[in-house]
Amino acid sequence: MIFCAIMEPAVQVENLVKRFGTFTALDGVTFAVERGEVFGILGPNGAGKTTTLEIIESLQKPTEGRVSVLGLDLQSKAAEVKARIGVQLQASAYYDYLNLTEILALLGSFYPNKAAPATLLEQVGLSDKAVNRVAELSGGQKQRFAVAASLVNNPELVVLDEPTTGLDPQARRNLWSLIKEVNQRGVTVVLTTHAMDEAELLCSRLAIMDQGKLLAVDTPRNLINKLEASYAVKLTMDRPMTMAQLEALNGRVEVLQSGEQNDPAAEDQESNIAENTYLLRLANSPSALKSMLDEIAKTGLGLENLQITPVTLEDVFLELTGTELRD
Ligand code: ADP
Ligand code: MG
Question: What is the pTM of this model?
Fold first, then answer.
């Protein structure tokens, strides 16, 4: 039954509870990561992401619940699991007096199935830094090196905790390509992030986590499509619209800002919004968009600017948690 063993999920977590004293950091978390996925755990600081990863890595023990990794029960097979998964360490944890090649050779020496340092450095685009020290790398290079170090034992699964936090946009994009490449070579990836763009771009599925609970697990697309209102529409007209004209657009009006408005509170809040500008929420359907445009044409007013923004994961998060995903 080797075939069945191969089909086991990469990670299966059931009813995970983690308490620190009276504080509950994880409150009944259940999910499965399939082989070959890039699975993201998305949530704000303190959600329980790192605790979840550290339990998967056997660095922490759950208070309650079961975890199996690569089909192996963590309670009885932790050593075997550790040999077959890759864990990203903080760059600061590496010996400063060894160069990159030496660090990878040292880390590899702990494993029977190890990758050559030169191969790893090539895979992460750091061949030219082979004899440099970690302290001599940029932030992005350090994170790429951390990924190389996580691959030292040719793992089937790598676990990356906020691999791109603190990186500049270019370095983030480089790291995204690297993670995709690693995944395309057949390595399952579990990562945490609090960046929506990253989650949407990189992850085949996402677990949305807040305050120790999993709120949803699905593909980014499905999470977005499940929300009722799917377009944010921002209209700027050449003259104010009447209430009746606005209502005919069939959207849920969120903010009005017209030359005719004299609500000082609203003006204070939205003072950066141009005159005669209206923010609407529109139902997720092409016909709603078309009928809105038809209604605008009927008003005879000039349309100076129109912006349509599809629902983002940020909206999903807001809907699920009632708060924005911010540091
Ligand atoms: P995240 O990685 O999503 O930011 P963590 O898993 O690090 O969140 O932490 C989840 C919660 O558990 C936080 O409120 C954190 O303060 C708490 N926590 C984590 N580790 C410990 C610990 N060793 N002792 C007490 N509380 C902890
Ligand atoms: Mg964390």
Answer: 0.80
Could you read off the pLDDT of 195-211 as tens digits, one per residue? 888 999 999 999 999 99
Same domain flag for 79 and 167: yes
Number of domains in the chain: 2
Here the CATH number for the domain that contains residue 218 is: 3.40.50.300
CA-closest residue to ligand 1 atom 6: 48
Considering the domain architecture, whether residues 149 and 275 belong to the same structural domain is answered as: no
20 CA distance to ligand 1 middle (Å): 8
State whether 265 and 194 are in the same domain. Answer: no
d(CA 42, CA 49): 8
Q: Are residues 237 and 107 in the same domain?
A: no
Of the residues 24, 50, 51, 60, which should be mutated to test ligand 1's pocket, given the most ligand atoms within 8 Å of the CB?
A: 51
Write out pLDDT tens, residues 154-197.
Answer: 999 999 999 998 888 888 998 999 999 999 999 999 999 988 88
Does the residue 318 lie in any domain?
no
Residues 6+ apart with CB under 8 A from 54: 60
